[in-house]
Amino acid sequence: MEIEVDGLRKRYGQVSALDGVSFTVRPGLVTGFVGPNGSGKSTTMRIILGLDAADGGRALVGGRPYRSLRDPLRAVGSMLDASALHPGRRGRDHLRWIANAAGLPSRRVDEVLERVGLAGGAAKRRAGGYSLGMRQRLGIAAALLGDPRALMLDEPVNGLDPEGIVWIRGLLRSLAAEGRAVLVSSHLMGELEDTADRLVVIGRGRVIADTSVPELLSAASGGRVALRTSAPAEAMAVLSHAGGTVASVGADALTVTGLDAEATVAALGASQVPFAEVSAHRATLEEAYMELTRDAAEFQGVPGGAA
C-alpha cells in the first residue's frame, strides 16, 4: 500500500507552508522524511492523515484520501505526538481504548505490547509515569494496533536509550521487510543513514531531494579523493596534468576531483610521486543534508557564538 503525495499546497495567512510537495512512500521501503524546522514536514503528515486540509493537491493512502478509508487504522498507523496520552491511564488501557474505538480485536493489545517491549509490568503503569522513551514505544504500539500496511512515525528515536535506538532501527527494517510502506520523520541523520532506503528532503515547503540514500551520498561525496603525500607540489602537477582538479587541505594533504582513486594511484605511480594514503572521500548523510538544506533553514545561528 503506497502513500502518495501529489502537488500539496498549504498557506497559513501570508505564509506558504507547502508549495507543490510531491513524493511517494512505497511498500517494502523505509522512507526518511527530513528538513529544517518550519520546512513543512508536520503539515504534510497532518494532511496525509486528514488532520489538516490542503489548499491544493492531494494525499492518498492506498489510492484513497485518509478520511474515506473504511478501516483507517488497518490501512495506516501513525505516531505524530508520543506525549498525547492521558497521564492517569495505564499503558495497556490506553491501547485497549484505541482498539475498542476502532473495532480491533483485544488480542492485538498484548501482541503489540510484546513487540515494542512494554509487556508485563510496564503496561500496568500509568502513562504519566512513563519516560519519554517509554511513551515513544507506547505510541509505536498504538500505530501497530491495526496491523497496518503503511506506517507514519514522527521522530520515533526521540528519548530512546542506545538499546532502544538499536531496537527501533531493527523494528523499522523488519516492518519494511514485511512489505509495509514506512515513512519516518527524523532529525538524526546518522540513524536514517543506517535505516532508510530512500530520503525525501524538504525545505521551505518544497521537495529539495527525493532519492535513495546511496545516490544522495554519492552525489554529496562529489567523486573526491583524499591524498597524503610528502611531495604535494609534484603530486598537484602530475594530477592536474592527468585531468584532475587538486586542492591543498593541509601540509601534506590534498583533495582531488575529476579522478577516481584508481586513476589517482596510477598517475602518481607512473611519475614516481610518493604518497602515503589515497582514499575515496565518502560524505556522511549529515554532510549531504546540511549541503542540501543550507539555504532552506528558517533560523540560522551566528558561527562561533558571536553576538
Automatic annotation (TrEMBL):
GO molecular function: ATP binding; ATP hydrolysis activity
PROSITE patterns, per the entry: ABC_TRANSPORTER_1, ABC_TRANSPORTER_2
Keywords annotated in UniProt: ATP-binding, Nucleotide-binding, Transport
InterPro entries reported in the protein's UniProt record: AAA+_ATPase, ABC_transporter-like_ATP-bd, ABC_transporter-like_CS, P-loop_NTPase
Keyword set includes ATP-binding: yes
Domain ABC transporter: from-to ranges: 3-229
Membrane-crossing segments per the record: none
Pfam families in the cross-refs: ABC_tran
Similarity field: Belongs to the ABC transporter superfamily.
Protein name: ATP-binding cassette domain-containing protein
Upper lineage: Bacteria, Bacillati, Actinomycetota, Actinomycetes, Streptosporangiales
